[in-house]
């Protein structure tokens, strides 16, 4: 077996993860090859050191803390549902907001279409003009035609022969 | 675990009792902060309780639980990296990162015994390993997981675990050469 192949197996050999056959072949090579044997010793000793790193214990009694949470937690099914309900509600509120905005916009545009000046606010002169338009068919030379001509705009009067 | 799946609270209490130490230890060595590790341990068990209805009996409870803890840790470490990147310290180079506990210890070598120094060096070397290598090392060395169990917990192949641990050993050897007994003799 080549050194390169053995080096790839050293880690698994240290962890006892090689098959019996592979372990035997690798050990045979290590007995014959000082360089690979040194690599094995180095890695194995460092690996032993790592095992000496102290463990950390929890300072709290975990179960008492967890039990409180669990008893206040909704059932798993509801938790699943909740995962969808909140985004759905948010989407609904957003869409509703847009719809209300569009409605309000339509309403104000509708307002624009309502005459800004109500009929009762139209100046009396204009109302008179509307009423005198009834005399449009008045015969020439009649009083009605005179009223029509006098109430027309000065330009219109000027254009007349 | 099947009882937990059916919502048996006392069975979950037994599960917590059995695994809280290994999970806490794992998380501590991943985040290097005892308070954060305790919070993450609680979170991991709460996730486990909520995910219990989806537990499949073919998975070992330990690997299933550690898979949850691993996902939480990776999420946390990603968030920490993002926060560090956006932090003032990153932009202006002020202060050192909180995830590098080695700095303080190294600045006071005289106050520590040789044993303490070595332990600090070991923890530093472990902390400097890439995340996935660190996960594999902790599960193998501290929890005694087989390569197959590590592969299940990490969601990768046994060959992948072999490669991770091989590279981790070489990195650790390079960091800790001065402390290795084989070198001292």
Task: Break the fold down into its secondary structure elements and pairings.
The complex is a heterodimer of chains A (161) and B (185).
Chain A: H1 3-14, H2 20-32, H3 34-51, H4 62-72, H5 76-113, H6 124-132, H7 143-151, H8 154-159
Helix pairs in contact in A: 1-2, 1-3, 2-3
Chain B: H1 2-5, H2 9-31, H3 34-51, H4 61-86, H5 88-92, H6 102-106, H7 114-127, H8 131-142, H9 147-154, H10 158-176, H11 181-184
Helix pairs in contact in B: 2-3, 2-4, 2-8, 3-4, 4-9, 7-10, 8-10, 9-10
Q: What report would you give on this structure?
A:
The complex is a heterodimer of chains A (161) and B (185). By secondary structure, chain A is an all-alpha fold. Chain A has helices at 3-14, 20-32, 34-51, 62-72, 76-113, 124-132, 143-151, 154-159. In chain A, helix 1 packs parallel to helix 3 (34-51) and helix 2 crosses helix 3 (34-51). The longest helix of chain A has 38 residues, at 76-113. Chain A is rod-shaped, with a radius of gyration of 50 Å. By secondary structure, chain B is an all-alpha fold. Chain B folds into 2 domains: 1-96, RNA polymerase sigma factor, region 2, helix turn helix motif (Rna Polymerase Sigma Factor, Chain: A, Orthogonal Bundle); 100-185, Winged helix-like DNA-binding domain superfamily/Winged helix DNA-binding domain (Arc Repressor Mutant, subunit A), CATH 1.10.10. In chain B, 75% of the residues lie in helices and 0% in strands. Chain B has 11 helices and no strands. Chain B has helices at residues 2-5, 9-31, 34-51, 61-86, 88-92, 102-106, 114-127, 131-142, 147-154, 158-176, 181-184. Chain A binds chain B through residues 8, 10-12, 14-15, 17, 38, 41-60, 62-63, 65-67, 69-70, 73, 76, 79, and chain B through 7, 9, 12-13, 16-17, 20-21, 24-25, 28-29, 34, 37-38, 41-42, 45-46, 49-50, 52-53, 118-119, 122-123, 126, 137, 140-142, 146-147, 162, 165-166, 169-170, 172-173, 176-177, 179-183.
